[in-house]
Structure formats: structure tokens, C-alpha cells
Amino acid sequence: MALNQENITNHDCYVLEVDGVIQVITDLPFVMWFAVDPATHGKGYGRKLLNWVEQTIIRDQAGAPAVTLATAEKYPYLLSMYERWGYERIHAFDHGTGDGTMHLLRKVVNPEPGRFDGYTGRSLHSEW
Known about the structure:
The protein has helices at residues 2-10, 45-61, 76-84; strands spanning 16-18, 21-23, 30-31, 66-72, 88-93, 102-108. The protein has 3 helices and 6 strands, in the order H-E-E-E-H-E-H-E-E. It has a single domain (2-108), classed as Aminopeptidase (3-Layer(aba) Sandwich). The strands form 2 sheets. A 4-stranded mixed β-sheet has the order 3-4-6-5. By secondary structure, it is an alpha+beta fold.
């Protein structure tokens, strides 16, 4: 939790607020803008980097039981790739920005019993 607070304090963070309430999809860490050089596709660099982030940063340093990321349905190869890498779809939404349906995915990185205590891993918005 201290790392989350530090990140919020030291970086730009954006939230959706409706009627004075911040709308949160999940309280798990979120990986944003994950990419590799297209010239290196298929060499396993992306998987190696994401595995390191999941284990070293998310599990070991942050102590989180799982990690989330999102991708657009218009990139079906990314959805299937993340699912092969152990992610599961937990929420779909369309912001109306022209990107179409976005999918929030989650991967458990620490399956020990009790690791989800303090992490709901669920939508905190009553309509989701």
C-alpha cells in the first residue's frame, strides 16, 4: 500500500469521479502501456519482461496477490496472448471513445490462501 501512495503522490494519476465518488474498477495493481519493439515480436522479450514485473514488482515488492491490465477488443491477438499467459477476463466496458470494447484482465501472481485479504479484486462500482 505504501508503494501505491508513493506512486499517487509522485506521479500524475487520473480517476473518474461521478457525483463526488471516485469510480474504481479494481484495487489491484494495473500494468499500463506494455509494449515491445515490433521488430522483436516473437522472441519472448515481452513475456520475459511481464513475468519479471508480475513476480518481482507486483508479487514480491508490492505484495499484491494479482495484477491487472487492459486491452481493446479491436486487438484480438492481444486478448488471446494475455489469456495464454495466464490472464482471465474480469470486466468489459466501452468508454465511447472510438476504441470499442475494452477488456480488463487479471492474473493471480500469488495463489497462497489469504493473499486476497485486503484486495477485493472486484468492481467497487455498484453497477459493474
